[in-house]
Amino acid sequence: MATFRLQGSRVLAVDMTGDAVKAKNGSMVAYDGQMAFKKMTGGGEGIRGMVTRRVTGEQMTVMEVKGHGTCWFADRATEINLVRLQGEELHVEASNLLCTDAGLRTGTTFTGLRGASQGHGLFTTTVEGTGQAAIVSDGPAVVLRVSREYPLTVDPGAYIAHQGDVHQSFQSGVTFRTFLGEGGGEAFQIRFEGDGLVYVQPSERTTIAGDV
To answer: CA-to-CA distance for 33 and 151, rounded, in angstroms?
Structure first.
C-alpha cells in the first residue's frame, strides 16, 4: 500500500513501490523514479467518477498514478489533511478531495435537498474501505467531534467532510451575514447528529440555495 506523508502542510508526498493512487487531475507537482499517469473516465469510479454535480454543474476528473518512487501532490497552496479509514466511510466535498489509496472505493451519494424553494439537490463524494485519503482545506482544518448528547451545526460554506456514525440533515437558520443585511435568500445550515467527526475549514466557499 502506498505511504502518505506531508511535507510541510501544503504538499503531499506519496511513496509507491508498484502501488497506485487516485488523485485530482493536475495536482501532481513533482515525482522521482518511474511513474505512469492515466486519466480516469467512467460513471462510478474515481474521486468524482466523472459525475456532474447537479448542484453547480461543475465537473472534475481524476488520474491514476502508479509506479516506483515518490510523487508529490498539491492543490492551489491549500492545507492538506490526512484521514485514515479502517473499513469505514468518509463523506467529502468533491473539490476538497486530493488523493486516495487506489484500493478505496469511491462514489457519489445524494444527501438531500438544500433549499426547499429552490429544490436543488446536494451530492457528496464517498470514500470507503481501509487506507488513507488526503483532503484539502482553505486554511488549517478543524476537526470537531459529534456525540449523541451534543449535535453539531455547521455553515455549509465551511463544511469539508465527515466520518463515523453520523446523520446529516439541512435546517433553516440565520447566518451572521443575514444579521448584516447581506443575505440574499433563504439561509440553511447543516446539522450533524450521532457519533463521529466533522471537518470544517476557517473560510467559507461560495454556496447556493440561498445565502448560506
So the answer is: 47
95: nearest Cα among 29, 143, 27: 27
Q: Give yes or no for a contact between 73 and 140, defined as CB atoms under 8 angstroms apart.
A: no
Partners of 29 in beta bridges:
none
Hey, is 103 helix, strand or coil? Answer: coil
Which pLDDT tens digit goes with each residue over 172-207? 755 555 555 555 444 678 899 999 999 999 987 655
Burial level of 203, CB count in 10 A (0-12/13-18/19+)?
A: exposed
pTM: 0.80
1-29 in b/e form (b: 16+ CB < 10 A) is ebebeeeeeebbbbebeebbbbbbbebbe
